[in-house]
Give the backbone structure.
Amino acid sequence: MGTDRLGPMVTMLLILSALGCTTETSWLRKGYVARIQRADSSISSDRETAYQNTVQVRWLGTAGFHISLGDEQVLLDPFFSQQSLLGSVFTKLEVRDDVTEKRIGDVSEVDGILVGHAHWDHLLDVPDVAIHHAKKAISYGSLTTFNLLRALDVPHDRVKRASREVWLTIPNTNIRFKAYRSKHSPHVDRIIHLYQGKVKTLPKEPPTWASDFKEGRTLTYVIQFMDESGENSKFTIFYADSASGGMRGLPDLDETGDIDLAILTVAAWKNVDDYVETKLKCLKPKHVILTHYDDFFMEPEEEMEFLTMAYMTDFLKEIQETAREANLPTVFWIPARGSQINFPLATRD
Ligand SMILES: [Zn+2]
């Protein structure tokens, strides 16, 4: 059954990793269809045409992504060093470079690393990734992100501030992006909001505790793969690495044009007002990939489980209700860690 025949129904694509993951069906709404399929395999460079004309989106876990269009590639919030909640609070953070090595894949062509905010589950692994894996990439983020990365010995010419509301082009690519001022959700209910604040100057010591990784300004991004003329976007992505209420963090669509793909964080979405509904109704994305719903307090080798504060079942109900109410044609994707979703440019409509 093709999506055309589903009318206003939402097609949900649940991608299972090679490791498998639990399938729960209680979130399915009457009248909706769930389609379950395996993740796409990556399109290697020797299949030239598909490689050059397919946006490949690989979920790294937590809020991390590797996004490619041919050799034009970016990383978003790459993070692998999962550790227990208690450990993260009461001991110094552990950079698990062995886990990164196993999971990151080939990111040697990556020219830019975008970071939405500076909490440890977004920033901790960026220095290792930038220095040992994405060796030519420039990392971009808030002033806090900039200062923490500098304190962690990322070379000065490899870190830049993502100026808000200004298009920046990643050197040696046709990828441009713009950062928008957003706001981080509280972590527990609407009360507990961990590690707030900014790092406005270069710290004397490198950050080692979770509390050193202060949030800084939370940013959303619009990322565009531009054509050769530099005037038209071939594929436009909206990325939110934290849930934010209402209109916060939304771009001006008159300027960006249609959103092909919105990547939306699930974690703590209930702790802000009107996140799902406003984001979906305003962005009207063709595709949505859900992210940051996995429990990153588990050991990395354990099978993935949903983060408690993701309230995944309710989130899935909410997106389905919103999509039906607003008659959105959006396809929702729920990736498994390491899985890849391919968007061929020619047929993405
Ligand atoms: Zn955070």
